Amino acid sequence: MHRTSTTISRRNALAALAGLPLAAALGNAQAQRYPDRPIRVIVPFPAGGSLDAMTRELTQRMSTILGQPFVVDNRPGAGTMIASQAVARSAPDGYTLLSASTSFVTSAFVYAKPLHDPLKDFAPVTQYATDNHIIVVNPQVLPVKTLGEMIAYARSNPGKITYGTAGTSTAGHLSAEIFQQMAGVKFTHVPFNGSAPAITNLLGGQIMMMFDAVSGHIPHLASGKVLGLAVTGSERWSEGPQYPTVAQAGLPGYGRNIWDGLLAPAGTPPEVLRRLHEAAVEAMKDPALRQAWIKRGVTPMGSSPVEFARFLTQQTEQTAVVVRDLNMKLD
User: Fold this and answer.
1) Tens of pLDDT along 31-45?
2) Helix H segments across the chain?
3) Are residues 122 and 52 in the same domain?
4) Closest C-alpha to 126, from 97, 149, 146
5) What CA–CA distance (Å, rounded) separates 228 from 242?
6) 8 Å CB contact between 109 and 320
7) What is the band of 28 on the pLDDT scale with cuts at 50, 70, 90?
8) Residues 144, 243 within the same domain
9) pLDDT bucket at 6, cuts 50 / 70 / 90
10) How far is CA 328 from CA 75, 107, 169, 174, in A?
11) In this structure, are 55 and 146 located in the same domain?
């Protein structure tokens, strides 16, 4: 009886081993056919924000290249972790992607119980852009004209300046926390569920200031409803050279460039990642897209999956140190 069981087990093992080449062949065949149905891209912010707009513009062109529609699925909340977790738990077949930004890494360290691991749970596709943010104030409620004046006001009025963000642990939140530490000032953080409602409250005077993507403020800068003090990146905004960098305007050493990228669930076949990367790079060659993004303070990128993986590793290491130093831990 024991010999019979052993023989059956060996046969089953041999059958399983014999099936491995077939399974691999089937997997390769599926990758070669990819994509053969619509692709869903989850965005961790509400519709109407900078990341949402870039995602739609990019995937619209990728859809033409790949011959399948891209469906944008907005899932805000929990410092972008709701969207990230949804992608991490999806089948690794290239049909569910995440359009992520700097917050993707930050939230993994700010929250005591993060819903995802930014390195283990995802397969990088491409970093498709870097995004310059701007510090804007409502001049009706915060009577300053320069960054230096704002810093002086904040030092004289600790906690009085309220600043809004797209949510806790988002890029704007971390940028403001770093700014406060370096400038020796204290603001009051008011998190919203996305940039759009925060901008509405800035315009209405319910909050005084924002650290936010340039794109959402262009019409309000032009009309004078908000005043731009400085951009957070290491270089000036090419379409708004009148705005200095924070480092140039009075806080030497400060520099915060925001990144945007596409990720798939861990285990997605390399051939699928390659096709997605090639489609994204081809899409970003579109002159209309490049011109629109540059005008809004966005620099098109197109890094390879390997380069993006290396970049995410660096971002993760740096963010862990910053969050620890700032003591930004949340329950």
Assistant:
1) 678 999 999 999 999
2) 2-33, 50-66, 81-88, 103-110, 147-156, 171-183, 195-204, 218-223, 246-249, 270-283, 287-295, 305-326
3) yes
4) 97
5) 9
6) yes
7) low
8) yes
9) very low
10) 23, 10, 8, 9
11) no
pTM for this prediction: 0.85
Residue 265 domain-assigned (yes or no)? yes
130-176 pLDDT tens trace: 988 999 999 999 999 999 999 999 999 999 999 999 988 889 999 99
Please, what is the average pLDDT of the chain?
Answer: 90
As a whole number of angstroms, the distance between CA 28 and CA 81 comes to 31
Share of the chain above pLDDT 90, in %: 75
Q: Any idea what the CATH number is for the domain that residue 163 is in?
A: 3.40.190.10
Q: Which amino acid is at 172?
A: G
- Decide if 25 is inside a domain: no
Torsion of CA 102, 108, 114, 117, to 10 degrees: 100
Shared-domain flag, residues 148 and 214: yes
What type of residue sits at position 320?
Answer: A
109: domain CATH number? 3.40.190.150
Q: Are residues 118 and 263 in the same domain?
A: yes
Whether cis (ω within 30° of 0) applies to the bond prior to 35 is yes
Residues 158 and 300 in one domain: no
Element (H, E) at 125: strand 122-131
Which of 264, 304, 289 lies closest to 42 in space, CA to CA? Answer: 264
Distance CA 42, CA 28 (A): 26
The answer to whether the CB of 46 falls within 8 A of the CB of 74 is yes
Q: Do residues 116 and 215 share a domain?
A: no
CA distance 238 to 216: 16
Are 121 and 169 contained in the same domain?
A: no
- Domains of the chain: total: 2
> If you search the block for the tokens 């006001």, which residue do you land on?
153
Instruction: Identify the domain containing residue 282 by its residue range.
Output: 38-130+257-326
Residue 228 is which amino acid? G
Token pair in block for residue 199: 């901008």
How buried is 148 (Cβ within 10 angstroms: 0-12 exposed, 13-18 middle, 19+ buried)? Answer: middle
